[in-house]
Design a protein that fits this description.
It comes from Marinobacter zhejiangensis. GO terms for molecular function: calcium ion binding; electron transfer activity; heme binding; oxidoreductase activity, acting on CH-OH group of donors. This protein is α+β, with helices and mostly antiparallel strands. Among the domains are: 240 residues, no CATH class; 89 residues, Cytochrome Bc1 Complex, Chain D, domain 2 (Orthogonal Bundle). The strands form twelve sheets. It has a five-stranded mixed sheet with strand order 3-35-36-37-38, with no helix packed on it. It has a four-stranded antiparallel sheet with strand order 4-41-40-39, with no helix packed on it. Strand 7 and strand 8 form a beta hairpin. The longest helix has 24 residues.
C-alpha cells in the first residue's frame, strides 16, 4: 500500500494575507466591541460549505469542513516558531461544567456552546461578547443524562445558528442577534429520558440531530428538520420497534431479524449521541450508533443475534432518510462499545487505487477504514490492547471473538472498558503526514452479568450487569492505577500501524487538531495544552492553563493573524463516575475559552479555586458489614453516576462529596426520598425503601471513616 497526500486548492496555498478575506461577504454586518466590522454568517451557503477548503482562515463547522478532518491548512504558526505562541485573550463563560465544544469561526465571529446548550457569539480577535443565548433548561433535567450537561458544538448556516439544548430541543437562532427563530422538541412520545449533547449537522436545507439516553431505555433515532422553519422532514430509527405495530421501512424489518425476545420493551438503544458526518456533495449522512439498552445482550435479546443497527456506521440518504448501507463494528454489542466516536472522511491510496473512505476508531479498540460509498471494509486493525476479539476477519468483516469475550458464564476482565480505547474526544487527520491523531486510553474492566436484573424507570442506569467494585484500599488502588493509561497515538490508516505515541499519566485527554504547520495540538484534564510535531511527535510547546481540557481546539485567522482556540472544563463520564481517578488529577474547573497567537502577551486570569468541602465529621457507624455491602450495591446503581465511584466526588463543584455531607447526621433520608427540586438531585421515593436508603447511608458513612483514616495516616 502507498499513501497519497490530498492536493489542496490553490487558494488555500496562497499566503495567509491573501487568503484572509477571500470568502463571500454576507449581506448583514456586525460591529464588534473593538470597532471591527465583520460579516455575519448569512453567507454560509451550500456552495460555500462544499468549498470550505478554499477558506483556510475560517472554521466553518465543528470539524472545519464537511469531511471533519479537523485539519487546518494555515502555516503561520509552525513547528519552527510555535515556541513564540502566547495567550491572546480569555473569555470566561461563568460556569463550571464539562467543556466539550469546538468553536466555529466564520468571518471574524466565533460561535461556541457551553453547558446545557448555551450559545456564545464572540469577536474572534479580542474575545468580546457580541451576544449570548441561554435555552433555560430546567436544572432538574441534569439528572437525565448519563454523563453531565455538556454540549459538543453547534452549526451555522444561512444566517442561523443551530444548537441542541440538553433537554432535547433543537433551536435555530438568528446569527446576528441570538434571537430564537424556531425551536422543536425532538423527543418522541414525550420520553423525557432523551438528551442532546452532540452538535447538529446542516446542509442542503436540512438540519439533522440525534440524541442520547440509551442507558435509560430509549429507542435511538435521528431526525431531519427544514433548516428554514423547523418542520420535521424525516426520522430514521437505528433499532426496530414493536413488530406488532409494523416496521417503518425495510431496514427496520431486516434489523428485527437480528433481535429476539421483547427487546422493544426496554427501548433497544442505538442512540446517535455524537458523531455524524454530512457529505453535501452526495447528500449522504453517516451516523455512528451507540450501545444497546440495556448493555447486556443476554437480557435485551436472549437468543443472541447481531442486534442491528447497534454499534454501527450507517449511511442514510440525507434528502429522504432512506437507509443505504451499514457496517457493524461490534455485532451483538454487550460491552458499551459504541460506534458514536468521530467519523472522518478522506481520500487514501490503497493498493494503488484512490479510495474515498470513512475512518473511525470506536470504543472497541479497532481502527476501521471503509469505502464510504458502499460500506465495504477495506482494512481494520487494533490500535490498543484488545482482549474481547483477536482480529477482524477480512472475509466476513466481523470480529473474531475470544473464548471468554462475553460474561454470560461468569465475570470477565476485559480491555477496553466502557470508557473506550477512544471515546468522544475528536481525532484529527493530517493529509500531509497521512496520520490520524487519536486520544487513546487503556482501562481494564470486569464485566459481570446481573442475574437478578430488573429494569427500573426514572433516573437509573439500566445496564444489565454488575458495576465492578473498584479498590477502596488506598494501597491496592495505587497498584491498579498504573494499569490505567492515556496517550496520543499517531496512526497510519494506510498501513494500519502506529507511527508514534506520546504517553500521559492520565486518561480522558482532549481532542486533537492538526495543521499544515506540522503541528498537533491537544489538551489534558490536568490543565496543559501541548503542541507536537505532526510527523514525529516531538513536543515543541506547552502552556499551563491550570484548568482541565477535554475539548478539541480550532485554528483560524483574521487580518493575517493565526489563532488557536480551545474551551476548558473537564466533563463527561470521567468527571463524575471515576471519582478516585479524577480527583487525583488535581485540576481546577471552569469553562473558559483560551485563544493564542504568535507574540501573545495576555496574562492568564487567576484560576478559580475548587469549592471547599465541609470537614470530615462522620457519625458513628452502626451498620454491620452485610448492610454496608448492600448499601454499596445500591449506591453503585442509584448514586455513583453523579457522586462518584466509592463515594469519592469527581471534578464537578456542583455535586457534593457525600463523605463530607452533614446530611449523614440528619436529613439524609428525606433528601434521598424527595430529592431537591430545582437541582440535579432527583427523588427516589418510588425506587428505594427506608431500609434501602439507610443501607446507602451506612455505606457512605463507612467511606467517610475510610477518608478520616487515610488523612490520619498521611
Amino acid at each position: 500500500m502507498t499513501r497519497t497526500a490530498r492536493l489542496w486548492p490553490v487558494a488555500s496555498l496562497l499566503s495567509l494575507t491573501l487568503a484572509v478575506g477571500c470568502s463571500p461577504v454576507a449581506e448583514q454586518q456586525t460591529t464588534t466591541s473593538n470597532g471591527n466590522t465583520i460579516a455575519a454568517p448569512a453567507g454560509v451557503t451550500d456552495t460555500r460549505w462544499r468549498q470550505a477548503d478554499q477558506e483556510p482562515q475560517n472554521w466553518l463547522g465543528v470539524g472545519r469542513t464537511f469531511e471533519e478532518q479537523r485539519f487546518s491548512p494555515l502555516t503561520q504558526v509552525s513547528a519552527d516558531n510555535v515556541a513564540d505562541l502566547g495567550l491572546a485573550w480569555v473569555y470566561d463563560m461563568g460556569s463550571k461544567q464539562g467543556g466539550s465544544a469546538t468553536p466555529v469561526v466564520v468571518d471574524g465571529v466565533m460561535y461556541i456552546t457551553g453547558p446545557w446548550g448555551k450559545v456564545y457569539a464572540l469577536d474572534a480577535v479580542a474575545g468580546k461578547p457580541l451576544w449570548t443565548y441561554d435555552p433555560r433548561v430546567n436544572a432538574e433535567a441534569g439528572a437525565r443524562g448519563c454523563c453531565g450537561v455538556t454540549n459538543r458544538g453547534l452549526a451555522v448556516y444561512q444566517g442561523k445558528v443551530y444548537v441542541g439544548a440538553f433537554d432535547a430541543r433543537l433551536i435555530a437562532l438568528d446569527a446576528q442577534t441570538g434571537a430564537v427563530v424556531w425551536e422543536e422538541d425532538t423527543n418522541e412520545d414525550n420520553n423525557a429520558r432523551r438528551t442532546i449533547t452532540g452538535a447538529p449537522r446542516v446542509a442542503n436545507g436540512r438540519v439533522i440531530i440525534g440524541h442520547g439516553g440509551a442507558e435509560f431505555g430509549v429507542r435511538g433515532y435521528v431526525t431531519a428538520y427544514d433548516a428554514e422553519n423547523g418542520k420535521q422532514l424525516w426520522r430514521f430509527y437505528t433499532v426496530p420497534g414493536n413488530p406488532e405495530q409494523g416496521f417503518e421501512n425495510q431496514a427496520m424489518a431486516d434489523a428485527a431479524e437480528t433481535w429476539s425476545g421483547d427487546w422493544w420493551t426496554q427501548g433497544g438503544g442505538g442512540t446517535v449521541w455524537d458523531s455524524m458526518v454530512f457529505d453535501p456533495t452526495t447528500d449522504v449522512i453517516y451516523l455512528g450508533t451507540g450501545n444497546g439498552s440495556p448493555w447486556n445482550r443476554r437480557i435485551r435479546s436472549p437468543e443472541g443475534g447481531d442486534n442491528l443497527y447497534l454499534s454501527s456506521i450507517v449511511a442514510v440518504n440525507a434528502r429522504t432518510g432512506e437507509y443505504l448501507w451499514h457496517y457493524q463494528t461490534t455485532p451483538g454489542e454487550s460491552w458499551d462499545y459504541t460506534a458514536t466516536q468521530p467519523l472522518v472522511l478522506a481520500t487514501l491510496e490503497l493498493d494503488g487505487k484512490s479510495r474515498e473512505v470513512i475512518m473511525q476508531a470506536p470504543k472497541n479498540g479497532f481502527f476501521y477504514v471503509l469505502d464510504r460509498h458502499t460500506g465495504e471494509l477495506l482494512s481494520a486493525n487494533n490500535f490498543t490492547k484488545v482482549t474481547w476479539a483477536s482480529h477482524i476477519d477480512m472475509t466476513t468483516g466481523r470480529p473474531v471473538e475470544t473464548e471468554n469475550a462475553r460474561y454470560d458464564n461468569g465475570p470477565q476482565l476485559a480491555f477496553p472498558s466502557p470508557f473506550g480505547a477512544h471515546n468522544w474526544h475528536p481525532m484529527s487527520y493530517n493529509p500531509q503526514t497521512g496520520l490520524v491523531y487519536i486520544p487513546h486510553q487503556q482501562v481494564p474492566w470486569v464485566y459481570s452479568d446481573d442475574e437478578n436484573y430488573q429494569a427500573r424507570p426514572g433516573n437509573v442506569f439500566n445496564l444489565g450487569l454488575k458495576w465492578p467494585d473498584f479498590p477502596e484500599d488506598p494501597e491496592v488502588l495505587q497498584q491498579v492505577l498504573p494499569l490505567i493509561k492515556g496517550s496520543l497515538v499517531a496512526w497510519d490508516p494506510v498501513t494500519q500501524q502506529k507511527a508514534w505515541e506520546v504517553e500521559y499519566p492520565t486518561i480522558w485527554n482532549g481532542g486533537t487538531v492538526t495543521t499544515a504547520g506540522n503541528l498537533v495540538f491537544q489538551g489534558t484534564p490536568t490543565g496543559q495544552l501541548y503542541a507536537y510535531r505532526a510527523d514525529t511527535g516531538e513536543r515543541v510547546w506547552s502552556y499551563d492553563v491550570g484548568i482541565g481540557i477535554v475539548a478539541a481546539p480550532a485554528v483560524y485567522a483574521i487580518d493575517g493573524e493565526e489563532y488557536v482556540s480551545v474551551l476548558t472544563g473537564v466533563g463527561g463520564a470521567l468527571s463524575r463516575i471515576a471519582g478516585p481517578f479524577a480527583a487525583a488529577y488535581q485540576a481546577r474547573h471552569s469553562n473558559r475559552i483560551y485563544t493564542f497567537r504568535l507574540g501573545g502577551t495576555a496574562a492568564n486570569p487567576p484560576v478559580p479555586e475548587r469549592r471547599p468541602q465541609p470537614p470530615l465529621s462522620p457519625p458513628e457507624q452502626t451498620a454491620d458489614a452485610a448492610n454496608v455491602d448492600s448499601g454499596r450495591a445500591l449506591y453503585n446503581r442509584y448514586c455513583m453516576r453523579c457522586h462518584g465511584e466509592g463515594a469519592v466526588a469527581g471534578l464537578m463543584d456542583d455535586i457534593p462529596d457525600l463523605r463530607h455531607s452533614p446530611l449523614l447526621h440528619a436529613g439524609f433520608e428525606p433528601t434521598v426520598r424527595y430529592g431537591r427540586p430545582g437541582t440535579y438531585m432527583p427523588a427516589f421515593d418510588d425506587l428505594l425503601t427506608d431500609a434501602d436508603i439507610e443501607q446507602v447511608r451506612s455505606y457512605i458513612v463507612k467511606r467517610a471513616h475510610d477518608a478520616v483514616n487515610e488523612q490520619a495516616a498521611r
